[in-house]
Automatic annotation (TrEMBL):
Belongs to the TRAFAC class TrmE-Era-EngA-EngB-Septin-like GTPase superfamily. EngB GTPase family. HAMAP family: GTPase_EngB. Keywords: Cell cycle, Cell division, GTP-binding, Magnesium, Metal-binding, Nucleotide-binding, Septation. GO terms for molecular function: GTP binding; metal ion binding. This is Probable GTP-binding protein EngB. SUPFAM superfamilies: P-loop containing nucleoside triphosphate hydrolases. PANTHER family: ENGB-TYPE G DOMAIN-CONTAINING PROTEIN, MSS1/TRME-RELATED GTP-BINDING PROTEIN. Pfam families: MMR_HSR1. GO terms for biological process: division septum assembly.
Length: 197
């Protein structure tokens, strides 16, 4: 998919206030600092469309970007910088869980995971919650340029093994780097294939 246009539309903390039209949308979520803003800017081929983590307050909202005038890219707040909490409910802010439960035009969420780290409990808990609530998601491994190919492969194998402890299969996943544009075509073409279904 070619990106012909990408424009910021609105920020909200309430699902009811999100765009009312029925364009398909794709949500991006992950731990703070996972590289979400960089990935969004890379996918859209823009330097400053999504705010990078220098200004964390700005990302505590549901941000809608209209892409090619026919789908939304949704930038959700990073989770995981709150203190470790006892329950999932307290860990994931209510407006995020409301968003996923209520937003019918949300086709697929991309859960971002830093390829350098071993599986983080909060990411696994979040994906568990998504599974239990029947919300479709894929995984995007970020910052692939920071690892040598062998180490990258080893980490993804280890991640897959961890997922298979609770999942029947490894969810579809993409390997990306915002620094060198790795994975850009794969993610965008996948979105395009879902849009044309
Ligand atoms: P966010 O908090 O998830 O939006 O993360 P940011 O996009 O602000 O990135 C956090 C930090 O990781 C920044 O210092 C980025 O420059 C760096 N970063 C993000 N993506 C990449 C990447 O693909 N490669 C490298 N080398 N650094 C990255």
């Amino acid at each position: 998919m070619q990106i012909k246009s990408a424009e910021f539309l609105m920020s909200n903390s309430k699902v009811e206030k999100c765009p009312k039209d029925r364009l398909p949308e794709y949500a991006f979520i992950g731990r703070s600092n996972v590289g979400k803003s960089s990935l969004i800017n890379m996918l859209m081929d823009r330097k400053n469309l999504a705010k990078t983590s220098g200004r964390p307050g700005k990302t505590q909202l549901i941000n809608h970007f209209l892409v090619n005038k026919n789908w939304y890219l949704v930038d959700l707040p990073g989770y995981g910088y709150a203190r470790v909490s006892k329950s999932i409910k307290r860990t994931f802010q209510k407006f995020i869980t409301d968003y996923f439960r209520e937003r019918e035009q949300m086709i697929l969420a991309f859960v971002l995971v830093d390829c350098r780290l071993e599986p983080q409990p909060i990411d696994l808990e979040f994906m568990q919650w998504m599974g239990e609530n029947g919300i479709p998601f894929n995984i995007i491994f970020t910052k692939a340029d920071k690892l040598k190919p062998m180490a990258l492969e080893r980490n993804i194998k280890a991640y897959t093994a961890k997922m298979l402890e609770t999942w029947e299969e490894m969810p579809q996943h993409f390997v990306t780097s915002a620094s060198n544009y790795t994975g850009r075509d794969e993610v965008l073409n996948y979105i395009e294939s879902l849009n044309s279904n």
